[in-house]
Amino acid sequence: MKRWIMLLPLAVFLLVAVFLYRGLFLNPAELPSAMIGKPFPAFSLPTVQGDKQLTQADLLGKPALVNVWATWCISCRVEHPVLNKLAEQGVVIYGVNYKDVNADAQKWLKEFHNPYLLDIRDEEGSLGLNLGVYGAPETFFVDAKGIIRDKFVGVIDEAVWREKLAGKYQALVDEATP
User: Fold this and answer.
1) In this protein, which residues make up the domain named Thioredoxin (predicted)?
2) Is residue 17 part of a domain?
3) What is the dihedral of CA 114, 168, 59, 36, to 10 degrees?
4) pTM of the predicted protein model
């Protein structure tokens, strides 16, 4: 009996070592989302530019990127010029201003230009919570029927768009084209 008790620390150590070894091969940039394959969550929130109420029905009809951003997010400032270029090229982008002061968001969009066809004000973070947002920036790929098809966490720069995301967006556009 004493031998089994003496082997217990070794067994615990080996179990912990297996979990740590497995962790070496995980990509920390990949944050899983339970929302993939599910409809965009129901919401009723005002726009950043005014008090018009938007709902998930406003997102239907075209494939789009839904970009979660904030003025307090340094990475969002890096990403914003790329989003403006994408919008100029015809990429449909909806913005969710996440846990932000609305006056700051209005100033930001005036100063840095507004790439968003719709700009949703999520001051309390309720929509972000329902989407499973960890922080900003995060971008969701939503098909024409309002189903979340993919998610990207981090800054979208030109290389990331070209190498990882453009094909995903184009596939949604092609799928929606009869």
Assistant:
1) 34-178
2) no
3) -120
4) 0.83
Is the bond preceding 46 in cis, omega lying within 30 degrees of 0? no
Mean pLDDT of 5-13: 70
Least confident of 31-35, 121-125, 165-169: 31-35
Query: Percent of the chain at pLDDT above 90?
Result: 76
Those residues with Cβ within 8 angstroms of residue 43's Cβ, 6 or more apart along the chain or in another chain = 54, 55, 56, 120, 126, 127, 130
Q: Where in the sequence is the domain holding 40, given as residue range(s)?
A: 33-176
Closest CA to 100 of 71, 135, 133, 78: 71
* Long-range pairs for 23-29: beta carbons < 8 A, 24 or more residues apart: 29/153, 29/154
Query: Is residue 6 included in any domain, yes or no?
Result: no
CATH code, domain with 142: 3.40.30.10
Query: What is the rounded CA–CA span in Å between residue 91 and residue 53?
Result: 23
Task: Look at the chain and report how many structural domains it folds into.
Answer: 1
Roughly what angle, to the nearest 10 degrees, separates helices 102-112 and 74-88?
A: 50
Any domain includes 5: no
Does the residue 18 lie in any domain?
A: no
Look up residue 53 and give its two tokens.
């109420």
Evaluate if residue 24 carries a pLDDT over 70.
no
